[in-house]
TrEMBL record:
This is DUF3429 domain-containing protein. It comes from the Bacteria. It comes from Ruegeria marisflavi. PANTHER family: TRANSMEMBRANE PROTEIN 69 (PTHR15887:SF1). The keyword Cell membrane does not apply.
Length: 150
């Protein structure tokens, strides 16, 4: 994780907490019961992960839009079009219950990683961007997988 500025690294890692919390409350029944009692059922297990995952995919659409502003002509148009995909994916693909929503979020975050790679390859993202995104995506997909595969 060397070369990643401290503030984006810290904020990115902090942004993993709802995914980690969701996985922990899914895997540990005592923690799930405590969390449901203190925070309510919406803030445990896959439910917190799905709600937060939708927000993060929409947020990342905005980040990619910002990258697209650095491009010109056809590349800018392509960047703008691609930048809205994560938000639309989150909106249309997270219904149908917690398991299918989590599976679709996994695909959404993996697709986002491919978009990140495209923007990085075009020189529109910071040079450290993919190092950060690989780590964050690995943790997010792992945490979402806890509710799907375990």
């Amino acid at each position: 994780m060397s070369g990643i500025p401290r503030v984006p690294l810290f904020l990115g890692l902090a942004g993993l907490l709802p995914f980690i919390w969701g996985a922990a409350t899914y895997l540990l029944p005592a923690l799930q019961a405590w969390g449901a009692g203190i925070l309510g059922p919406r803030f445990i297990g896959p439910y917190v992960q799905i709600a937060y995952g939708q927000i993060i995919l929409a947020f990342m659409s905005g980040v990619l839009w910002g990258f697209a502003t650095k491009a010109n002509g056809g590349q800018a148009a392509t960047g703008y079009v691609l930048s809205v995909i994560p938000a639309l994916w989150a909106f249309f693909m997270t219904g149908g219950g917690p398991t299918s929503a989590a599976v679709n979020l996994i695909f959404g975050f993996l697709g986002l990683l491919m978009l990140d790679a495209a923007f990085a390859a075009w020189g529109l993202a910071p040079v450290w961007w993919m190092r950060l995104r690989l780590v964050l995506t690995f943790v997010v997909v792992s945490c979402l997988s806890a509710g799907v595969f375990l």
